[in-house]
Amino acid sequence: MSTVVNDSAAVTEVVGAGAAGVDTASEAHELAQELSHARGLLRFATAGSVDDGKSTLVGRLLHDSKSVLSDQLDAVERTSQARGLETVDLSLLVDGLRAEREQGITIDVAYRYFATPTRTFILADTPGHVQYTRNTVTGASTADLVVILTDARTGVVAQTRRHAAVAALLGVPHLLLAVNKIDLVDYDQGVFDAIAGEFSAYAKGLGIHEITSIPISALNGDNVVTRSERIDWYDGPSVLEHLETVDLAADTDEALRFPVQYVIRPRSDELPDYRGYAGRVGAGTVRPGDEVVVLPSGRRSTVTGIDTADGPRPSATKGDSVTLLLSDDVDLSRGDLIAGVQDAPTPVVEFTATVTQLADKPLKPGARTLLRYGATSTRALVTSLDHLLDIDSLTYGPAPESLALNDIAQVTIRTADAVPVEAYRPGGAVGSLLIIDPADGTTLAAGMVGDRLAALHPETTTPAAPAAETEEDWLS
Amino acid sequence: MTATADGLATRRVASPHLRALESESIHILREVAGQFDKPVILFSAGKDSVLVLHLARKAFHPAPLPFSLLHVDTGHNFPEVLAFRDRVVAEGGLRLAVAKVQDWIDDGRLSERPDGTRNPLQTVPLVDTIVAEKYDAVIGGARRDEERARAKERIFSLRDAFGGWDPRKQRPELWGLYNGKHAPGEHVRVFPLSNWTELDVWNYIEAEGIDLPEIYYAHQREVFSRNGMWLTPGEWGGPAKGETLQRRWVRYRTVGDMSCTGAVDSQATDVQAVIEEIIATRITERGATRADDKLGEAAMEDRKREGYF
């Protein structure tokens, strides 16, 4: 294990958003140079039950990686003293809103930024309360990795399994179980091994690609940034070392998916006929000369150029914002999808999706909504709520009468216009959707095309969806 | 560095991380153009708004910028910054509207504060102008790393008819799906730099060769000390009795109202030196330079609820 992690001296020299701990300008310059060789960006989320010490872990991670600056620390020290605390409460670093500080809870996803010489990090810090599961879903939606906190004294509890299940449903490839408060069980290896074994078995059953467990004490800093000498039986990486080294292999041989956001037409004297299709590559790679199909129309064309403000490019891959030029003057507008001709999705007007209810307002069968898919927006009916998902047993229950906040369910959606939907892929650049209230624009639910539970358990057969009701008024 | 026909600097070098941030911001700005009827960029000529403008022009190249610009002028702005603002607008052929706090004071809609600070007075002219001009998307350069209430801000942030921000009404944002639907009278504030840090901004400014007002770089200036900050004298009121002027090498890390934006001691005369200084610093940007954020633990949260940017 020690061969794959970094020298801890390098790890603790952080050059993050206003990093400290650098003595001279020349040293700073060297670190800046190193940053330019960084391995890119890791997006991760944290989740845990109340009192598992998640805010303390995040505060400790920022503090020990020297991403907390002196004025921020001064404020936290003053507040800790004012509350009569004997030690500095690092969780105060990350509790942002006054309501949260007053109630000692976290009610919303907060984003944190830090960097080490090898990687930069965006952390989505999500609340652990049961009633805020929607925020765990939000934080995990773009995460490459989720850190789940558990208390060494209680081990794997229902909330731990729930967080793992949510991560699996969203297709998060890496899970890190931080077994916190290991000091309160006398650094007992047997306790850690039992928890790690139980969690690993459960998460493997969910099809998670990679699972790591680390014994930590967020309060004392054991194994958060630097490896603990008090836990000599553990020879794996610290939490930060694992975050720095986890392998983010990208899927490079996917077919092209390019949702058109905007049509660029200067109509100037120099460029009277310029017509470019602006968007961000959702999957695959595009090169000039590639044959593509435009959906939903099904017209074929050829890519003649990839334009950017920095000049033409020989190729663009997943995540790149570019402008595509096509050989034919095809009728194309915002919401259309440019796809590779191989494996192109078929536009449909009815499909199933696994959705999480995000709003207080309940979602009922027959609800008239707007569907957002890629850059497409169309009127849609949630024709039926087919099965409520029991996140604890990971089984489908009977059809619910309505969806309440935080419910996860399989539903059937019908759309006014054909939409080239296809099965959800991790990261959500393909197959993710929003269900929106047309009256006030509220995001009612977020969804993943297809049956995500079946994707976790390939052997499970999904019960057939009931026939769609007729609500033609909304769709026509 | 070379410049293209429309004045955009071309990329010299940028890390994968900066390229990813750039692509994300361009995606957000194109969503604004696709989802809204009358977007506007808040443009103070501060570095973050200069960066937003730069990214927006890249997003729609080679077409003209589909957004206009709005500046809320406190009347206490640095003359160098206003000159820079006007030059950028003229050279880029851009459309700029200016809402002057002084006009609101003159006709009695606002009154001067006893301490002379006008930063908090920007909110009313901003919200009045948004309503009068029917702007439905207001694009700003705020970043989540600036302050802890902002760490929870959405990229598309819904505001009510009074410009107010209710943290409990904000929509969850999943994947890259930004929901700009809003009821009549409401508008959406959009923050394309949400995921950038101060260091990212400066590294990108260097990589792209972006021009900034010269007060961001170290220069000699007459300043006086107040509340632990170096302030520049001017019509806004300083220095008071007992405050003495001295000449120092300073630069500004943020640019705002002269009455409450402090300079820091610095020898960093170019962008590389600024980057080195930021890496070595031990105080955050706002903590060092913004008196208005020192008002209380929840100062920013309270101002956001009232419609402040």
Automatic annotation (TrEMBL), chain A:
It comes from the Bacteria. GO terms for molecular function: ATP binding; GTP binding; GTPase activity; sulfate adenylyltransferase (ATP) activity. Pfam families: GTP-eEF1A_C, GTP_EFTU. Its EC number is 2.7.7.4. InterPro entries: CysN_GTP-bd, CysN_II, CysN_NoDQ_III, G_TR_CS, GTP-eEF1A_C, P-loop_NTPase, SO4_adenylTrfase_lsu, T_Tr_GTP-bd_dom. The keyword Transferase applies. The keyword GTP-binding applies. NCBIfam families: CysN. This is sulfate adenylyltransferase. It comes from Nakamurella multipartita (strain ATCC 700099 / DSM 44233 / CIP 104796 / JCM 9543 / NBRC 105858 / Y-104).
TrEMBL record, chain B:
Its EC number is 2.7.7.4. This is Sulfate adenylyltransferase subunit 2. The lineage of its organism: Bacteria, Bacillati, Actinomycetota, Actinomycetes, Nakamurellales. Belongs to the PAPS reductase family. CysD subfamily. One of its GO terms (molecular function) is ATP binding. It comes from Nakamurella multipartita (strain ATCC 700099 / DSM 44233 / CIP 104796 / JCM 9543 / NBRC 105858 / Y-104) (Microsphaera multipartita). Keywords: ATP-binding, Nucleotide-binding, Nucleotidyltransferase, Transferase. One of its GO terms (biological process) is sulfate assimilation. Residues 39-262 form the Phosphoadenosine phosphosulphate reductase domain. Gene3D superfamilies: HUPs. InterPro entries: PAPS_reduct_dom, Rossmann-like_a/b/a_fold, SO4_adenylTrfase_ssu, Sulfate_adenylyltrnsfr_sub2.
